[in-house]
């Protein structure tokens, strides 16, 4: 078995048929589909039981995206592990082109693809990920027209979005899969940075195309999502960022808070989206809770950092160079403009 495709589902019945049908139409055939259901109550399990090509792992409760994927790992037989959101649709040659790029780059532990907006197919959802100085991340070139994005001279990226990503099993066996403490959001940043620290490259399969209904699975921006993102970006940063950036973390975090406050007060960019489902007070409290819980977890995070650094093959200056190359400004992060 060459490829194990892992789909985590939670009350996503409305999305599953289109996603699974697009997999059935793939030109590349040497793959299995494992769907982990996170305790859905919308009839997803009954539907999946009627799809003979699917190996169903039914959990009794919602374990989140991170541990949902982890639950599939004991059943996955593939040389490559591919994470795929349930609210996606793949082009028929997507997997063929994705695997082709992975095989052309044996030193790459991670391969991303061209993720486009389902609603606006001419616009980019992600071409790999970019990272802010404080560890916040988002899809590279998100919202831009793909035709306006210049092709890279080399296919290298920092790491892929786990919305659609290929991970080499050899890398996962070395450094582990997702950290279940994240539950959801930023777990791909953590895994991607761990892979980079361990010396694995990441490349982009630019011609492997998937369409993504952004935020349809996790829900729109909300105070709870804001809490998870705030907490988890600290988790990822404290586990993986080079030491000089850790020293600057209080300063860079305050810089982002200042930018974020302006965005929320002005209801611009993502600030306007947050306020559609929560008040300004709820947003501030969500950020405060996320920061508080990250600080409370500091002893455990430092222990995990020590584990990450035991696999380190890339030095501090090389990691700083990579992070500078794929740096995301706070205005870009928040869609706030300059």
TrEMBL record:
InterPro entries: Glyco_trans_2-like (IPR001173), Nucleotide-diphossugar_trans (IPR029044). The keyword Glycosyltransferase applies. GO terms for molecular function: glycosyltransferase activity. Keywords: Glycosyltransferase, Transferase. CDD domains: GT_2_like_c. Gene3D superfamilies: Spore Coat Polysaccharide Biosynthesis Protein SpsA, Chain A. The keyword Transferase applies. Residues 4-175 form the Glycosyltransferase 2-like domain. Belongs to the glycosyltransferase 2 family. This is Glycosyltransferase family 2 protein.
